[in-house]
Design brief:
2 domains, 197 residues
Amino acid sequence: MESQAIVIRILGSQRGKLIVLDKINGMIELIITKLHYIHIGYQIEYELSNVKGSTTNLNYYKITQTPDNLITKNIFFFHHLFELFYYFVPIGSCTEYLFVFLEELYKYNIIHTLLSDDHKRYFLIKFFYLLGIHYEEQEDATLERLLSTIASIPIDRFHNKNLDLSERIKIDFWLQLCIDSHPANKLFVTKNIFLKN
């Protein structure tokens, strides 16, 4: 039976490991012999051959989607987003809603090739909410309502939402707190450029 996944990280060069977000099995490691045509962000279909815990040998794979245009136009944001997936989503966790979230992002690219900073904020808020990470500011119930509202907006309707400057500042501060809450945040390569292109 074929499985679907999105490549989150590549470890090794010739024979190496792929860290993928599988539609059914969540975040898993795949052992692959040749990495020639696989890149971060590619969606693949594959057959498993040898399952050992959360590490699996790939028997066969094919690339089903390459979001090159989306990633090229928003390269720093996507480097950061995939880095967040790698660090915040544990290996072996089942996260079908995160797979659907990334698929929606790819579908959104068909209409909009360049993401605005507000769209980047939206995707990061949605990401942290899907993971259940709510770094709440005790004194600011307005911010919590705003974040909750934004997280509940479907991806195809977010373009109608305009954030004002004070909302952007509060959201940026909240996002940075979420990112800084990870114990390995000092390892993040893209930590300081999460809203830049």
